[in-house]
Amino acid sequence: METVLSISNLTKHFGKIKAVSNVNLQVKAGQVFGMLGPNGSGKTTTLGMLMGVVNPTSGSFKWFGEEPTHHIRKKIGAVLEHPIFYPYLSGQKNLELNAMIKECDPANIPKVLELVELSDRKDDKYKTYSLGMKQRLAIASALLNEPTVLILDEPTNGLDPMGIAEIRELIKKIAAQGKTIILASHLLDEVQKVCTHFAVLKRGVLVHTGPVDDVGRGSETVEVTADVENLNEVLLKFAGTSTINREDGTFQVSLRDGFRSQDLNKFLFENGVIASHLVTRKKSLEKQFLEILAGA
Ligand SMILES: Nc1ncnc2c1ncn2[C@@H]1O[C@H](COP(=O)(O)OP(=O)(O)O)[C@@H](O)[C@H]1O
Ligand SMILES: [Mg+2]
Asked: Is the dihedral of CA 173, 43, 157, 69 positive or negative?
């Protein structure tokens, strides 16, 4: 798969503050790549360097295998800070201005408005927009020049639950169109819900990187209920059982590496137990994230 971004030993110091230290990572085409880390861990600084607005202290990065140039940056759309929109102009007019500044085809405006679901509000003044709509307009603006990569910094900050859900759906929709997305977030569930791959930053140091799906592999927990007396006994006989916890008549079975909930289900059935309830729970990213941060 094509490497979209390759970062080597990227470092940024602000005086004594080591905002970003020797970061190495790769982002491949089609990934939704999350940069996860608590506030102050260096996410925005990293994105700033990638966009050419912050000068690295040392290290380098390449976009599409090439040195970052103005030309290459045209393939990248970014929503880094709240972009400047004119409150008394409509969404449409604001995008027209942005299209002019960025020298991109205004014919793209209806398309991006449609994508972010603002077509019906395009003629309303920007100042009448909700925060979520403002953020969607910012994303629309970043997509005006049809970039292959979209960069988002804390895309749901300050939004209400409805606005958050809309932005997350939008990110998935944009990813489904084949764009590569790089997003920074301090929210675990955001990364878990929208990203395919992620890196964890801790005080400017990259402490973990990998697919989101791998997190929790080998640490499946299965919740089981069955209307039989000997459920506990049968569960104990199952070779894949690591530990069993009982909570209000429900058994929480954590599985050994290599065992899946299907295996447990089959075993129960073969032992004459029909589960009335069987739910697989992965170890939460939160727990793993805390372990990653604690261990690094
Ligand atoms: N322009 C700057 N001048 C001095 N320190 C900065 C500047 N920008 C960021 N920092 C510091 O760099 C560290 C990383 O900040 P930042 O990249 O904004 O983290 P994040 O986006 O993960 O919250 C913080 O300690 C922050 O105070
Ligand atoms: Mg930040």
From this structure: negative
* CATH architecture assignment, domain 220-291: 2-Layer Sandwich (3.30)
Q: Which fold has domain 3-211?
A: Rossmann fold (3.40.50)
Q: Which atom of ligand 1 is nearest to the CA of 46?
A: 17
Distance CA 246, CA 242 (A): 14
246-293: per-residue pLDDT in tens? Answer: 887 799 898 887 888 999 999 999 999 999 999 988 766 666 677 777
Task: Point out the ligand nearest to the CA of residue 205.
Answer: 1
Domain boundaries, the chain: 3-211, 220-291
Dmax over Cα atoms in the chain, in whole Å?
A: 73
Does position 218 have pLDDT exceeding 60, yes or no? no
Q: How far is the CA of 154 from the centre of ligand 1 (A)?
A: 14
Task: Kindly give the distance from the C-alpha atom of residue 186 to the centroid of ligand 2, in angstroms, as a whole number.
Answer: 8
The residues with which 251 forms a beta bridge, in sequence order, are 224, 246
Q: Tell me how far the alpha carbon of residue 242 lies from the centroid of ligand 1, in angstroms.
A: 43
